[in-house]
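Sample pair:
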Amino acid sequence: YVTVSGNPNMMRLLLIGLSMLAYTGSLRSYPLIKSGNVVNIDVFGASRCIHTSTFMHEQLLPTYRLFGSRLRIQYHPFGVTKYTKCEWEGRHVECFCQHGPSECLKNALQACVISYLPEQDDHLELINCIQGGAAFNDSVNACLTEKTLKSRTTADEVARCARSDVGRSLMAHHGWIQNRKAPEVPWVLINATREKEAEHSLQRVLCKRYFKPPPPECAGIGPTSSEQL
């Protein structure tokens, strides 16, 4: 869960302002795709959660690379709400994560990347690169380059964001969203419906249940497990 204490009015204003910064353009307005519908995917995860990492590396990113123009993806870095929280402590935001301070720091790093580069085509590969057990500085050095940041910001600026109240507040905002929708991670919503099977067979679930009509790339993908029963 996310709690706000100490100075609730300041925290509320900060989160409203940051949420506007973080989500301006994140609901990307795709042109009408004559070949089919666009499917919305919300993914809730944590930066050092092994199950989130597996889903990100083996399911979400390959699916995005295959069907990108048919998908609108929003990723929310926070964690299991039972063990993860952000609080206003005096003049600062403090966050506590299931896998320790390093997870909070990398959650904030992902949240800052999404804020600086709100369109999925600009940030999803970066989020995937950051995801996993690498140390914070190693992730910054390996993932945040002038090319990957589209020359819109610098690695130092994004790293400072992650270490600051701004980054922790952005993470808290993702937690506020997750608290209403997803008690665990990874948690996948497709068109606002939880799809447990998508955690292991995302392409199959999209092709068999959501794409209308299915794109040609779906031709070689078999039935979902429920259809096999």
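The mean pLDDT is 88.
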